[in-house]
Design brief:
single chain, alpha/beta, 6 helices, binds S-adenosylmethionine, 30% helix, Rossmann fold
């Protein structure tokens, strides 16, 4: 996927500056918190792409996961995060484009990132292949995908989908461990999201 870094960065920075961040719930979402709480190996290398204010990274870091990387194309939420969590290593705050990032992670977390870019086949395929590239041999992609209609409107975020649509992309590089209607969503998202754990093929 070709991303114009400065254009994308400006778009998202403007949304943060104008406080138009409907996606930002202000705390770690329950499904991700409960997933993290059952992880036993705190040394794993975790990437949170399109992390925004990254309440998940804050929670992980304060709970002993020190190998967490926060990625965003906009510097604004990264700066806010650095202020909020001053002990978090600056070298683990990545101001970069997900689609060209290089690295090797054990776990990548999805939350309202997939739904944020234009839902063309090209973009969705690029997301899945890039996720796969960024994961190591036994790597996992874990997170939440909106279970809301994908309309033809290419302007209106968040862009939705359903299990079948998502699997048509994810199946190319991942095996499903679980991908089900989320039972512990936050109230505002109840019934509107899927929780998935995918293992890299
Ligand atoms: C809808 S917001 C979601 C933020 C966060 N995941 C949350 O749940 O609050 C999408 C985020 O992805 C970032 N983003 C968009 N395109 C990106 C890209 N190509 N690489 C890295 N970050 C990107 C935006 O700056 C924004 O912070």
């Amino acid at each position: 996927m070709k991303v114009n870094l400065s254009q994308e960065s400006s778009y998202w920075t403007q949304r943060y500056n104008e406080n138009r961040m409907g996606w930002d719930i202000g705390y770690i979402s329950t499904p991700l918190k409960e997933y993290f709480d059952q992880l036993t190996d705190k040394s794993i290398k975790i990437l949170i792409p399109g992390a925004g204010n990254a309440y998940e990274a804050e929670y992980l870091f304060l709970n002993g996961f020190k190998n967490v990387f926060v990625l965003d194309i906009s510097k604004t939420p990264l700066d806010a995060f650095a202020k909020r969590v001053p002990n978090f290593p600056k070298s683990q705050l990545l101001h970069d484009n997900f689609f060209t990032l290089k690295g090797n992670y054990d776990l990548i977390i999805e939350q309202t990132f997939f739904c944020s870019f234009v839902p063309t086949k090209e973009n969705r395929s690029a997301y899945v292949s890039q996720m796969s590239k960024l994961l190591g041999k036994h790597g996992k992609l874990v997170g939440l995908w909106f279970d809301i209609p994908l309309t033809g409107d290419m302007e209106k975020r968040p862009f939705g989908g359903d299990k079948t649509i998502y699997l048509s992309f994810l199946d190319k590089h991942f095996s499903v461990i679980t991908f089900e209607k989320c039972y512990n969503s936050i109230p505002e998202r109840q019934g509107n999201e899927l929780f998935g754990i995918f293992k890299k093929n």
